[in-house]
């Protein structure tokens, strides 16, 4: 099954959560950290907020991105879990090895 996000939405396959090495996890005491995942599909029409004209996408299929854990809607498609985000919910693109990184 293929999913085509509508408008300024991004479909992300979330990365598996990191394994914890402690026996006791106090979830309430740990502040939420951004979650990462790989972009698998983009909405067809990203638009400029001011004029409504088409705007260039800030991510492309295959990018690994960071997003807030509370952002988007979790969906299950074809037995796989995904997160459907608004493009504005993407916090950053994680560069691949060999790409420039802002420090």
What does the model show?
- The protein is an all-beta fold.
- The chain has a domain at 9-16 and 33-94: 10 Kd Chaperonin, Protein Cpn10, Chain O (Roll), CATH 2.30.33.
- 0% of the residues lie in helices and 34% in strands.
- The chain is built from no helices and 6 strands.
- The chain has strands at residues 9-14, 35-42, 64-67, 73-77, 80-86, 90-94.
- Strands 4-5-1-2-3-6 form a 6-stranded antiparallel sheet, with no helix packed on it.
- A hairpin with a 2-residue loop joins strand 4 (73-77) and strand 5 (80-86).
- The N and C termini lie far apart (40 Å).
- 13% of the residues are buried.
What is the fold's blueprint, element by element?
Blueprint lengths: L8 E6 L20 E8 L21 E4 L5 E5 L2 E7 L3 E5 L9
Antiparallel strand pairs: 1-2, 1-5, 2-3, 3-6, 4-5
How much is the radius of gyration in Å? 16 Å
Beginning-to-end CA distance, first to last residue: 40 Å
Strand content: 25-35%
Low-confidence stretches: none
Give the class from helix and strand content and strand pairing: mainly beta
CATH topology of the domain at 9-16 and 33-94: 10 Kd Chaperonin, Protein Cpn10, Chain O
List the main descriptive attributes of the protein structure presented here.
103 residues; mainly beta; 10 Kd Chaperonin, Protein Cpn10, Chain O; six-stranded antiparallel beta sheet; 6 strands; 0% helix
Summarize the structure.
With 103 residues, this protein is an all-beta fold. It has no helices and 6 strands.
């Amino acid at each position: 099954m293929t999913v085509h996000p509508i408008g300024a939405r991004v479909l992300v396959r979330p990365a598996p959560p990191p394994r914890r090495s402690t026996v006791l996890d106090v979830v309430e005491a740990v502040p939420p950290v951004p979650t990462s995942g790989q972009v698998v599909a983009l909405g067809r029409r990203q638009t400029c907020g001011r004029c409504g004209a088409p705007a260039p996408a800030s991510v492309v299929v295959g990018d690994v991105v960071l997003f807030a854990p509370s952002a988007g809607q979790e969906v299950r498609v074809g037995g796989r879990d995904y997160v459907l985000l608004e493009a504005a919910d993407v916090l950053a693109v994680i560069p691949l090895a060999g790409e420039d990184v802002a420090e």
